[in-house]
Amino acid sequence: MREIRVAATGRLTVSDTDVPEPGPGEVLVRNRYFTVFAALRTLLAGGVPGAPLPALRPGDTLVGPAIGEIVTGPDAGALVRHLRGWREYAVLPAAEAEPLTTALPDPVAHFAQGATAYGALTRAAPVRAGDTVFVSGGAGSVGTMAGQIARLLGAARVIGSTGSAWKAERMLALGYHAAVTRPFGERLAEAAPDGVDVVFDNVGGDDLRAAIAVANRSARFALVGALSGQLAEHGTGTTGPVEIDSYQLILKQITMIGYSAGGDAAVRAEWDERFAAWLAAGRIEFPHVLVDGIEQAPQALRDVWAGRHFGTVVVALS
């Protein structure tokens, strides 16, 4: 089998190794797909205490969401999702192999990063009918879902930010009412002349400052990512520093909360049900890019860091 490991130089390598043998209470899974996500830069940079995935050291195999087929035991043939991607075969405790529901038309749709967006926009910063919602990083794996979810939850206007004009065009086709590029402050003010009521912030940095400037009184902010810091060219990849005008938070009585769906089973179950219904009705899309072959995965990760893709990036294993 092949897997992607961290070399001593910090680069990623495709390595050959034996297919592992499952022990008591474990299952062997043949992976069919896994996702490529930007936050791996933080894990490769040493990780952050409290993060859901561990730091990656030289010699380690990368990790992340995967979908595979159980090949041993009474459940052989069943499709499951788990967190041991970046390898062709994985051994994991049977309890960590989550069976896929049959409600979605394509196994790849289970990679849609909607649970965090749905939870944030229904719990942390709930969208109300008629709201104007701003989604920073609206062209990424989470942002492409957040914009659609905000609209389906009743937002009257949904605005997203992105770093490139071609992505802005794709966002409009996806259902965003407006998509802004740099300079964010000036262009967000033009796109939201009546201010914003809800902010789904996946980026921090300039996007967050711009959102505070145009926020309405009692605006609700859900902070779900810090990509401006994680992907900063000269940053460590482990912090997301941003200077904001806290006086504006007081004057406008802004509510700001960090949010992660994490292991919230109730949010996940509710999202899975609504996502399946919206997909069946043709009311939502899952923007994604398929990359063929595990040997293409290291370059796919570099492309994600460089912002070359729209939506979620999935590696398909033959």
UniProtKB/TrEMBL annotation:
Pfam families: ADH_N_2, ADH_zinc_N. CDD domains: PGDH. SMART domains: PKS_ER (SM00829). One of its GO terms (molecular function) is oxidoreductase activity. Residues 7-315 form the Enoyl reductase (ER) domain. PANTHER family: QUINONE OXIDOREDUCTASE-LIKE PROTEIN 2, SHORT-CHAIN DEHYDROGENASE/REDUCTASE. This is NADPH-dependent curcumin reductase CurA. It comes from Actinoplanes octamycinicus. The lineage of its organism: Bacteria, Bacillati, Actinomycetota, Actinomycetes, Micromonosporales.
